[in-house]
User: Which sequence fits this backbone?
């Protein structure tokens, strides 16, 4: 596995099948998911919760990259807003990416977007909070 | 299967394992998910995307109930904001419920919350748009 | 001036003309504004920023009431989402109210709504952060 | 007054004192406000509602620019999320700008930010809806 590529780390990651990339060196984490029939809703399009999942990963790991370049510093999602611009379908590959906009020691603001090829599927903004070190195992 | 209980309808529903209940007759859809290790994040707590998924289901189906009591009228999520108040863990049962707050023919506003027992895990507000009938297959 | 009624405290309050009520004893702050032509937009309806202002006041002061019943403990708005359900007009009286949903020592989650009479004008959810005491004058 | 510069158009604009600029030809509307003591909160910083007001203007007028370059096509704010990154103070000049991200005939998605000089004060995302022509006077 290449440096900075995280696969199968958590239960949710194994279930949904996405790949997390924190190794590009630009402070932005990426999350990729190849859509299958496992990710669709009633309309045959990708489920909004799946879109939110890849965005939460990309934005949360971007928050972690504000601490160090392992992308593993623990952060919790405080609040996230997702705007859904266009549908995606089984066979599409979703690419989500985060961008740090500001914040301080404990609370950071991250935005991001997810595309399927050239098509902008969704945008998001979120507030993330660093897990106090005494609470980390 | 009881009236109003929807199981295994979509790929995402089968993958995540939630149950949708649109049959209580109070205009509010509910979504239940028993958390397992398949739904956890790096912290061993439920993944934010899983929480967003059950909320998206509960709120979207509540939007559908504004049309008729089948809860099947097609709506798309336009925008959703989720606030994360407390963690939940494998073994917990998440119960999400929606509440219609307003809107018109095509755009409706829905809020909701998800609990694990008595604990409030997350709240959400969303904008949902009715799929024009000519676009429904 | 009655206990818990705050008028003309800040520049913005004097400019916009709202009244803040933190004295009902139920942990919920209220903000009232009688709309005039000073508060309207291009459509002759209340400007979205004015609606956001009374909501920010009601939610922020509700955050303060989580500390003590003066409603003066300093909190900053971290993030706020406003959903606009219906217009209001000059002559209407806006009544905004907040409700604490959760949180801890430093970060709290508040929701709220604003009505003009019986009509629900807007709803909001927000994240508020307590200003550390060493930073308060 | 220069082409595309809108001053004193509405009651709220005259009360708050901002200037709207829809004439740069890049599809992005701008809203400028010189902060005075009339715009401050308890902390002596700019009130969150004032920040939301200039963002609502910049984003809403950017929505209008998606129709034609007058920036006057009527749109309503459906939902807006504002993240507050840093304070600004009396004497600062707020500059808000919008950016169209997507949407269709009736519903558009716009994001934006507000700066005071180089400092990023707040970011926003919003959903805006075109007012049907039959409803415009």
Assistant:
């Amino acid at each position: 596995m290449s440096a900075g590529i995280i696969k199968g780390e958590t239960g949710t990651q194994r279930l949904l099948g996405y790949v997390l990339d924190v190794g590009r060196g630009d402070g932005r984490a990426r999350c990729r998911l190849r859509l299958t029939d496992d990710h669709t809703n009633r309309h045959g399009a990708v489920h909004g919760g799946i879109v939110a999942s890849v965005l939460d990963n990309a934005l949360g790991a971007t928050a972690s990259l504000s601490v160090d370049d392992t992308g593993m510093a623990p952060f919790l999602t405080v609040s996230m807003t997702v705007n859904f611009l266009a549908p995606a379908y089984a066979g599409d590959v979703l690419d989500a990416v985060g961008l740090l906009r500001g914040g301080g020691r404990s609370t950071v603001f991250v935005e991001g977007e997810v595309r399927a090829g050239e098509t902008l599927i969704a945008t998001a903004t979120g507030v993330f909070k660093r897990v106090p070190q005494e609470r980390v195992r």
Summary: The mean pLDDT of chain B is 94. The first strand of chain B starts at residue 5 and ends at 7.
